[in-house]
User: Fold this.
Amino acid sequence: MFAVAGLISFALLQSGCEEEHSAASADEKPPLVRVQQPVTKSVTDYEYFTGRSDAPYSLDVRCKVNGYLVRWNYDAKSDQPPVKDFNFIVGQEVKRDQVLFKIDPRPYQATYDQAIAQVNLAKAQLQLAQADYARALVVAKTPGAISAQDVDKYLAAQGKAEAEVAAQQANSESALLNLQFTDVKTDIDGVVGRNLLSVGNLVEANTLLTTVVSEDPMYAYFDIDEVTLERIATLMREGKLKSARDEDKYEKYPVDLGLTGGEDYPYTAYIDFVNNQIDPTTGTLQVRGVIANPKPPQGPRVFAPGMFLRVRLPIGDAHPALLVPQAAIGTDQSQKYVYVANADNMVEYRPIKVGEVQPDNLQVAMPEQIVSDANGIRIAKPDEKGAEPSLAAGDRIIIGGLQRIHPGMKVEIQPSAQ
Assistant:
């Protein structure tokens, strides 16, 4: 008796709970979400690479004659001692034709003086030969006073003396050149490295003494992979992108550069070289840009040879695009999507493709072609009828409250703050 009454009471209690739960579900409000329309903005597509800076000119400073290194302002005739070993400060800038090292000039000065003396001797002999020939011509006017053969001998002696003068002058010029080579100069403007030998060392011709690298302008080298090359080539064939190899286009094709420590690309280089073949070991094509590297009023120049560079290559001209907040973009395996609140405040799934990240945490959203069927929204097949873009400028993208929603759910739109 008591057992039957207990079961009846339990059944009545359960029935009352279900009615209360149903009433509560009916009174539950749709989740509150925040929405935002896509931002329409003109953007440029980019490809990103890494590169290195390099100097257009790099000079190995080598001696051209043998001898002992002496202090750069060495003068055997001066009573004043030289003040420093070399005419440069390691790591500082030097100018073209600046003397950097000095090789003992005394042996070459003596050789040059000797060569000049030989030139003077040959000239004196030439004067005598010229005088002998002139007298022979005067004597020859008297019949029988001198034979024609003797006249020819004096003429030949004059020619020999002229040739000797030319030979000795050539020897003197060679001796002078060797004497001038005792001043070891730089042929370019740039920054000098350390001296590889000190004063007092015996050096032979072609011995490396230091290096000099130019600073302004600077080269930026980077490599483009084959996938990107094919994309660029396709755009070129479609007329959407100009080739950097076109005549007079090098200086007009910009490349943005950034340094290791930053996130932006504040510097601009201009492509001046595209290699003529792809490297088969890496599958990349080498490209080079030129960038100005002037000396600032204070501090060093921005670029130095061998620096790591971040490279941003613009692909095509600026074009209008839809930008959406990055936080609103979801990922379903490899498919990107956003949730949109339609006119009835129902949540819809919209597949998209994403492009470049833009300032203010926005990202380019490229609509997919979609169709609606009994199973909901799906990506359209190629040339399928009734397809339409998955995203438009007037759509309301859900950017807040995403954790509480799913497609097909009704939502309440949070009023925008005034």
Q: What stands out?
A: The chain has four domains: 32-41+320-413, 45-56+215-319, 63-103+184-213, 106-181. Helices lie at 2-27, 106-139, 148-180, 226-237. The chain has a mean pLDDT of 85. The first helix runs from residue 2 to 27.
